[in-house]
What does this fold into?
Amino acid sequence: MQDGLQRQQALGGQGFQPGTRPAVSLYRDVAERWHYRGDSERAEAVASRAQVLWLQITRLDQALSVGDGVIRMRNQIPGEDGDALNAALEHRASLPKAHEASGP
It folds into this structure.
């Protein structure tokens, strides 16, 4: 199982454009699996990658839809002192405001 997770994580960087819904979702899924297996160090590393990719999404509809999954992941893997969860919550809350500020 561990080899499968490592392969899936390695493949995450291939075949997906950075900052796209499939890339974020793949990393999020792998992070949650590492978390469930009790490997908090790997879970945090992959969760951080998922969050960075999420921050790169420029389309509001995609960022919002993927954001819910990132928030769910960060509830389980909140980062040191909950900083990563708080950053994810702040980014999610800023998305509609940024869209309104940019205009039609």
Remarks:
- Residues 2 and 34 are 9 Å apart (CA to CA).
- The helical segments are 2-12, 21-36, 40-55, 60-76, 83-102.
- The chain has five helices and no strands.
- The chain has a mean pLDDT of 84.
